[in-house]
Amino acid sequence: MPAIVLVGAQWGDEGKGKATDLLGSGVDYVVKFNGGNNAGHTVVIGDQKYALHLLPSGILSPGCTPVIANGVVVDLAVLIEELDGLEARGVDVSKLQVSANAHVIPPYNRVLDKVTERFLGSRKIGTTGRGIGPTYADKMNRVGIRVQDLYDESILRQKVEAALATKNQLLVKIYNRRAVEVEEVLEELLRHAERIRPMVKDTALELNDALDRGETVLFEAGQATLLDVDHGTYPFVTSSNATAGGACTGSGVAPTRVDRVIGIFKAYTTRVGEGPFPTELEDENGQFLRDAGHEYGTTTGRPRRCGWADVVIGRFAQRINGITDMVITKLDVLTGLETIPVCVAYDVQGTRFEEMPVNQSDFHHARPVYEELPGWTEDITGCRSFEELPVNAQRYVRRLEELMGTRVSVVGVGPGREQSIVLHDMLAPAAA
């Protein structure tokens, strides 16, 4: 049985949670391998809507083991809040596993994240202010706090004291904020230690053993390809590897064990935060997409920037991730448009780019080259087979498939779990 990686193929908010949920009944483990509570998944099951921020979407699938792996940074209070909220709604959360090697977000990093962003002013990155970036920076600087440190208070105290020795200098002398006390940090970190102790595991060993037993493991990326710290639109990116390669370093499962990579591509494009966005629409079409698609952040509530589909970044995502199957989400949002532009290339000061410019300045100045496709007016939210879609909706999907160079295996036609058209079995062996 396969190890499958599921990634966003744009700037996030593509509907990865729904795709994970769609696969959930056919997989044994769902693994979050990067990011923290700075991105959310919304999953709709029947008349119930679930907004998940830190937990893997697989926690909503009975029989599935959800895993927070070593590549994630964990806000303990958020984790407990989410677990309590789901338990109150009757969801069994007892199978959750948390890597002992995952890093913990200490309160001083949330403070630093917010004051640093404000200090940058017009040069701000657009972070969520939840301490994600500073915690990853601590990890790279080898001064981070890991989940396992919660169970050795002496070590934990030493690490917090060492971190605050420099961070308080920044807070007090640069940002004119009060110093953070060691005891208040320890109190917050230790408050939930016993609650999560039964969940703390060697998750890398657990996942490899599961694959050895022939079980199916799904790796669910937070954020998306264009937000990857190495391959995204740097510096307007997240602080982790949100591409398929990150699934291996973020979980301890080798790349030779990955069978399939599923990319999630919204039928149009959105992004949050700062940074270049060639197909962005700041007119009534952009507002139409925002309203029809309910494009407001699951975690932040921020309105998302909206634009037409961009297959240049789609091809880039396919190449960087090795995508074998593409899921097109929110096709229903485009219903009612007379024509639907698709960006097939960029014009950069008179030079045509068929692929992503490697130079950040070129990408910043990129202007979309559009191909106009005919729209449709029929309601497609009740369609359950590809043939039921209006001809122009079918043509739109097939054109995206052709332009991005990878097969479309699922088309989403609404927010509900059942509102998906399956063209190919994504759990079948890769050679099928």
Automatic annotation (TrEMBL):
Residues where Mg(2+) binds: 13, 40
Cofactor: Mg(2+)
Catalytic activity of the protein: IMP + L-aspartate + GTP = N(6)-(1,2-dicarboxyethyl)-AMP + GDP + phosphate + 2 H(+)
Residues binding IMP: 13-16, 38-41, 128, 142, 223, 238, 302
Keyword Electron transport: no
Active site, UniProt feature: 13, 41, 139
Binding site for substrate: 298-304
Domain of life of the source: Bacteria
Binding partners and assembly: Homodimer.
Function: Plays an important role in the de novo pathway of purine nucleotide biosynthesis. Catalyzes the first committed step in the biosynthesis of AMP from IMP.
Name recorded for this polypeptide: Adenylosuccinate synthetase
Organism: Ornithinimicrobium pekingense
Lineage: Bacteria, Bacillati, Actinomycetota, Actinomycetes, Micrococcales
